[in-house]
Amino acid sequence: MIHARGLVQTFQTGRGKDKKEVRAVDGVDLDIAEGEVVGFLGPNGAGKTTTLRMLTTLLKPTAGTATVAGYDVVKESEQVRRSIGYVSQAGGTFSGARAGEEVMDHGMLYGRSKAEVQKRGHELFDQLQLDGLWERMPKNMSGGQKRRLDIVMGLIHEPTLVFLDEPTTGLDPQARANLWEHIADLRTRRGATVFLTTHYLDEADALSDRILIIDQGRIVAADTADNLKAQVSGDLVDLEVSDPADLQRAAEHLASIAGSGSRDAVQVEGNHVRGRVQRAGRAVPGLLRSLDGSSITLESIEVHRPTLDDVFLTLTGRSLRDADASGAPPEGEDAAEEAGRPTEGARA
Ligand SMILES: Nc1ncnc2c1ncn2[C@@H]1O[C@H](COP(=O)(O)OP(=O)(O)OP(=O)(O)O)[C@@H](O)[C@H]1O
After folding, report:
1. 256 FRET partner, CA 20 to 30 A, in 25, 142, 151, 230?
2. How many domains does the chain have?
3. 153 within domain boundaries
């Protein structure tokens, strides 16, 4: 469904001697099969949107090739646009018509009959909790309602390949949960292929069959959430020691079952000692006995299964939450080769 080889996108930023080149996407290979839901995860500025814009034909690659639904993104961009649904991060601008009319126009643009679009449009309004808003002007909708209308527009022509750029950003928790259900449904009921970017770890985890992690323009991991988590060595054991004088001794006990067994495998912070332990569920009872035997008392003990953030930390040495590409130039400067962005409001 989606295949890319060596995709690169560079942007020129700054002027005169401050001029520099940003490699927003730096050699991305992708293979996404029909019916897969793939989560594209990475910190701000990692290159997610830029990759998506190349795949949806909005930006011409600086180098590399990609086919989407069997069509070349550069040579057959029109066919690519006809074959996909796209919900951009920024959302669309609307013409000033009522929401229902916008949806009707958009669906009919794709050659669907009026009756079909009307039926599907009302269904989507219902499913995305926009019921009663068919006659409302988008400009009089709340941010969350407008976001959901963007999603209706991206899905109205029943595409079997859907690109969603941070679909749930700006939605309240209930609308978010509702949209998750809808995305899961796209695959199970309609057999659609979904490629979604997100920086919400829980979202990627809950929805995706497979997760691609991008950092600084490069894919650093591609696997199921479970397999990625299995790469992180062990569960995090967090001991809170009652008496700070016992911290170093507690650290030695934890180190004896953690990672390489060396004292470096554990960290001390405040009253806490933390380290990664293989199969903590089995190792912890013995640890508690040995701490007890040394008269070290604990306030608490917690065991955390690895998260996708731990995966990112293991791969890059940074936490996904703090890994925003600092020092990156502001977006929108001197965009290179904007490849014929469709008219405002039109979604491919
Ligand atoms: N038009 C542009 N001109 C200059 N630099 C750009 C442009 N668009 C993106 N960049 C830079 O390219 C890098 C990748 O940006 P991109 O928007 O693809 O990241 P992202 O992973 O989607 O981030 P976010 O989660 O914040 O949307 C960033 O350093 C960004 O500042």
Report:
1. 230
2. 2
3. yes
